[in-house]
Amino acid sequence: MTAIQIERASKRFGTVTAVDDFSLSVEDGEFLVLLGPSGCGKTTTLRMVAGFLDVTSGTIRIGERDVTRLPPHRRNIGFVFQNYALFPHLSVHENVAFGLRRRKVADAERSRRVNEALALVKLDGYGARLPRELSGGQQQRVAIARALAIQPDVLLLDEPLSNLDARLRHDVRQELRRLQKLSGITTVMVTHDQDEAMSVGDRLVVMNNGRIEQVGTPQALYREPATRFVASFVGRGNFLPGKPTDDLGSFITASGLTIAAAHLRRDHDTLLVRPENISMERAGVTGANCFPATVEVATFLGSSFETTLRLANGDLLAAVAPGARATGATDWCAGDNVTARIDPEAASGLRAGAVDAGPAGNGIGRHGGRNSVPAA
Amino acid sequence: MVRGTTLTEKLQRSGFHISVAAAFALVLAPLFLVVWLSFFDNEILALPPQGYSLRWYRAIANQPQFISGLTLSIVVALWATVMALAVSIPAALALTRAKFRGREVFLQLLMSPLVVPAIVVGSALYMGFVEAEVQTGVPLTGSTLGFAMGHMLLVIPWCLRLIAANLVGVNQAVEEAAQSLGATPFETIRIVTLPLIWPGIVAAALFSFVVSFGNVELSLFLVAPGQTTLPIAILQYLQWKIDPTVAAMSTLQIVVVTAALLITDRFVSLSKAI
Hints:
The complex is a heterodimer.
Chain A: E1 4-13, E2 16-26, E3 31-35, H1 42-50, E4 57-62, E5 65-66, E6 77-80, H2 92-102, H3 107-120, H4 136-149, E7 154-158, H5 166-183, E8 186-191, H6 194-200, E9 203-208, E10 211-216, H7 218-223, H8 228-233, E11 237-244, E12 250-253, E13 258-260, E14 270-273, E15 278-282, E16 290-300, E17 305-311, E18 316-321, E19 337-342, E20 348-350, E21 370-372
Parallel strand pairs in A: 3-8, 3-9, 6-7, 7-8
Antiparallel strand pairs in A: 1-2, 1-4, 4-5, 9-10, 11-12, 11-14, 11-21, 12-13, 14-20, 15-19, 16-17, 16-19, 17-18
Helix pairs in contact in A: 2-3, 2-4, 3-4
Chain B: H1 7-38, H2 55-60, H3 64-97, H4 103-115, H5 118-136, H6 144-168, H7 172-180, H8 185-196, H9 198-214, H10 217-222, H11 230-240, H12 245-267, H13 270-273
Helix pairs in contact in B: 1-12, 3-6, 3-9, 3-11, 4-6, 6-9, 7-8
């Protein structure tokens, strides 16, 4: 069993608190992703687990061992760095053999395990090369092989894909997922890229200002984000401030709309509507959650259109729609009059501020319904 | 570089080439002159040549103080270099990898021989050695050890700066990677950090050797009767004679140092380290 237990870990640099009272358990064999904007404390947390940084307070356990005060070389962790951090003066083979040499693994056994690790990342035959003779993607795979060759208790990945170009990043993250399932190793990855996080993680931890905003499966975070921060960081969304009706069947926005929505709680102060949950129909359609609207902007994305709709009361909504069959034409154009229908099952309430923060709703203008795009 | 075909661009380009040529001429002219003079047949160092000969090279053999001076210079420079590296490598590691109080003071202290005139360092060392000798009976003045220790002070700033600059250039994630793979901090330095800054260490050693080898001011206070370095032997010789023997001796030095640089450069790329 090599679960990771982080109990009330904090890290302060002078007067700055980078990680604040952070508690989390990562289960054996789980792929957990720490997600958040830069400066949220995710890398600091990872480096504390690795032992590169001391905790200011708190405890870190790997399996049964309390590693809080253990130096990195005695923690038996595999760490993969953003910039690969291969040993430039050693061959690929020797890079992978490095940890085995430190562990005094006998020659034959060492050689076998190096070749095994290189085969795992599909780099057999590259052993004699120097790191600089490999492409970025290959270097990153050597780094992963090097980390796995020591059979670490846990694998820690610090933004492992951000130095790769977009196409390669997609391939390598599939590969990462495959390797992790294959080896069954407990893994923690840090990233600021939501697509990356959602595609590889069993569970995501969204961090903000050194604290956990929410922990959950990608589906749970996407469908029922606890805070506006989580909602805007995981996927895109329309955020409509307001309050639920007394029977919790509908949500009344500050701009005066009444929207039927399931899953409302009394303390919710914002309604989240994902762009793909707004369907666009021809003008004049009436019914539950139907609102007349005008297309302000329509961007063709190939498989769909990304549109901005202006409702009669002036609210703007971002919506994603397939072709414009509803109107008889093929394309959506600016100026089209349409009906926006919001799926009541998919509209969910949340709190604008942090779950345990004070009164929420600050910083959101009277004109709700702005579409919010997470920082790239 | 200035590119282009307009008149101004052409003029600017010529200006650039001329200034580069001038800089090279300024650096190389004295070297060229020394080598040229060493082949003159003249009895005194003067232009124009009255013919060419190798007699001044043969004359070196008749000047035992040149030979013994050369030996002492090399021995002192080697010891000074080794001792300075032994101090500078750990010091540079501490300065670039650790955060501690008084870091800035520590750095300035090690760099101070660059600031204090060598002649002052020399006289201070001399007085210190004499006092230490009186107190302990260990002969320091005029000893090779005392000599090398004095020169070590002189070359530490060079070693420290070069090695520290190379250490700053090492990606620290590489050192962390080594530790995550099970290397102790000491193993990390030995098998990762030092191999990566090896060109810098070689460059530092060369600089130290050359600085120590050519030093006069400090050596003046450390020499003993019958024990003198080559630069001082040359200085003393010049007080009585100005024949081209000195030029011949200098040419030999130039050859030795150039050979050392070329050979080193074949094994480590010095241009990367400096």
